Amino acid sequence: MKWSFDHDRPIYTQIIEQMKLFIASGEYRAGEKLPAVREMAQEAGVNPNTMQRAFSELENAGLVFANRTSGRFITEDINMVEKLKEELASEAVRSFLDSMKRIGYDKAKTIELIEKSIEERGDDKDE
Amino acid sequence: MNDIIMECSGLWKNYGGMQALRNVSCRIQSGRIYGLLGPNGSGKTTLIKLANGLLTPSAGKILINGEEVGINSRKAVSYLPDCVALPDWMRIYELIKFYDDFYEDFNAKKAYQMLESLNLFSGQRFKTLSKGNKEKVQLILVMSREAKLYLLDEPMGGVDPATRDYILNTIITNYSPDAAVVISTHLISDVENILDEVLFINRGEIVLSDTVDNIRSDNGKSVDALFREVFRC
Questions:
Q1: Which of A5, A42, A47 sits opposite B195 (nearest CB)?
Q2: What are the angstrom distances between the C-alpha of A8 and each of B143, B185, B216, B218, B224?
């Protein structure tokens, strides 16, 4: 797993974003046990307190839960993961549409371009 | 929950007519990693030397674990100086023995593990090592202690980027909730991901002290970028 951080935003918010992506994409599966905070901090090259803070927020959001004796796990609630996926997808579309607007593409032109690009790619048909 | 490991209040240090530190007050808490950041000659090394008793304050107080600097505080503080200060005729294993004899909290096993992962051969004489390898050995000795306070003065000045990563990793791995780490450095962008808090020091005064997360969300820029802005020449 590869972590990458921007330099101008708090790291813990970036960890939260990337964890959400890992959960949505299935890199971490529902119910999967997570490595210890220290281990994950080391992997990401961040301060353990920062990793801890990100996990506390993910816990509050219900995406991760802690079991006192056996560690931390990804939520087992499949619906929640589905919902997260939808959220991330709409966010991505929203920011895409914002960029297109800035470039000066209107709705029709944008849709036209999307269809053309999908056709050209072809290989992602099944998804 | 976090104990105060080091506390400075109204600290002054004069060298003749030159004021190196001016009324510095700060608190270092356990379980946190601090960056002591400032331009050349701003007083970083002076502050660190006061904390381990190599210098005495002109005025004000500095307490380690609630006690004045002395034998007890030295037991609790593991210090990496900004220059090489080891008997250079010794071989690396002799240096390890030396530290082991000196410090109760020294973990020789850990030292040998780190030597191995950095591909250093313990039979080599210290003075035959390259500048970067000397720094590595010195850092290994310092980090192999199980101290309450680590004072690292420019720990990465002369080492390559891959070793820098290893050093940062070592600091994270050794992280313990009851110890604090203070890193003085110019290589801000390298360290800022592992810091909890930064202290900006300029002309002997602390001009900013905040968490990295707060600095980033308040200014919308990295600590490194803020430093370049605050200390623009």
A1: A47
A2: 30, 20, 6, 10, 9
Residue B230 has pLDDT above 90, yes or no: no
B223 contacts B192 by C-beta, under 8 angstroms:
yes
Which of these ranges, A53-57, B170-174, B214-218, has the smallest mean pLDDT? Answer: B170-174
Is residue A18 helix, strand or coil? Answer: helix
Q: Measure in Å the smallest separation between the Cα of B212 and chain A Cα atoms.
A: 7
User: Which residues in chain B are closer than 8 Å to A46, comparing Cβ atoms?
Assistant: 172, 193-194
pLDDT tens track for B137-177: 999 999 999 999 999 999 887 788 888 888 888 888 887 88
pTM: 0.86
Q: The domain spanning residue B137 has which CATH number?
A: 3.40.50.300
The total of structural domains in chain B comes to 1
| Residue A53 tokens, joined | 């803070």
* Residues 189-228 in B contacting A (C-alpha not used; CB under 8 Å): 189, 192-196, 212-214, 216-217, 220-222, 224-225
DSSP state of B193: G
Residue A90 has, within 13 A of its CA and on its CB side, a CA count of 5
**Contact between B193 and A45 using a beta-carbon 8 Å cutoff:** yes
Q: Is B173 exposed, middle or buried (0-12, 13-18, 19+ CB in 10 A)?
A: middle
Domain containing B37 equals 4-230
Picking from B153, B151, B155, B210, the residue whose alpha carbon sits closest to that of residue B181 is: B151
